[in-house]
Design goal:
- Two copies of one chain form a homodimer.
- Chain A is 58% helix and 13% strand.
- Chain A is α+β, with helices and mostly antiparallel strands.
- Chain A has a single domain (10-108), classed as Winged helix-like DNA-binding domain superfamily/Winged helix DNA-binding domain (Arc Repressor Mutant, subunit A), CATH 1.10.10.10.
- In chain A, strands 1-3-2 form a three-stranded antiparallel β-sheet.
- The interface between A and B is large, with 43 and 43 residues.
- The structure holds a DNA duplex.
- Chains A, B: It comes from Desulfosporosinus lacus DSM 15449.
- Chains A, B: InterPro entries: ArsR-like_HTH (IPR011991), HTH_HxlR (IPR002577), WH-like_DNA-bd_sf (IPR036388), WH_DNA-bd_sf (IPR036390).
- Chains A, B: This is Transcriptional regulator, HxlR family.
- Chains A, B: Keywords: DNA-binding, Transcription, Transcription regulation.
DNA sequence: ATACATAGTATCTAAATAAATACTATAGTG
DNA sequence: CACTATAGTATTTATTTAGATACTATGTAT
């Protein structure tokens, strides 16, 4: 974990964890259930394998998700929300409500 | 507003609005009260004037905040949350709770 | 006449983030 | 022996985002 990345402000802390293009949607999918790498990738066809790997590593470093490796061939790796990742589901729920309202207001403006 | 930026998924939509380094904290400050440019900048000493301008323009383009210009010299411009920006305060509230919990879990790990 | 205050713009550079593409390891299967 | 499946890594390139710095306009006050 990088030093000094997180201070005492919950907002700037949250921003650091959430910035980027994929964190929220990945957390959403893992919030539904534990998934293997390939399964998650099929849910998210718009990012490449290497990008997904990086995003997952970042979320893992930040403590939001857990990575369980099964010593098998072919490899099996499962991703799931950590304790604090599970807590994030309450934010996701509000975000979903807000996001839908937001989309509605855009429609009203014919955007 | 850029075309095709927002689809039908509330999570990817929210991610687009929130990504970047400053959106959440700016929305938080404007959620407390309407502020002038300079006042907001004093709350956020870690970003330059030109960066703050860009962030505010982006939030305005995305419909989260409103910009009111008073025809005076020296100029006076007030920023405030829009209708949908006010709705975002519920997300901010959950984010604050979560962010504080997150900070606590980091402390437990001596990070 | 000069300086001040406010809210910018303009330009350039740097840093961060994401994407594209090719490559790898290995047990099991036909 | 060749082929498959899975979850990657490595490297390079492109794109996006943020930062640094200098500059602007103008009414009022000194």
């Amino acid at each position: 974990m990088e030093k000094d990345l997180f201070g005492i402000c919950p907002y700037t802390t949250a921003q650091k964890v959430l910035s980027g293009k994929w964190s929220i949607i990945i957390l959403y999918h893992l919030g539904k259930k534990t998934m293997r790498f390939g399964e998650l990738q099929r849910q998210l066809p718009d990012l490449t394998q290497s990008t997904l790997t990086k995003q997952l590593r970042a979320l893992e470093e930040n403590g939001l998700i857990e990575r369980k490796i099964y010593p098998q061939v072919p490899p099996k790796v499962e991703y799931s929300l950590s304790y604090i990742g599970i807590k994030f589901k309450k934010v996701l729920a509000e975000l979903a409500i807000w996001g839908n309202e937001y989309i509605e207001t855009l429609k009203d403006k014919n955007c």
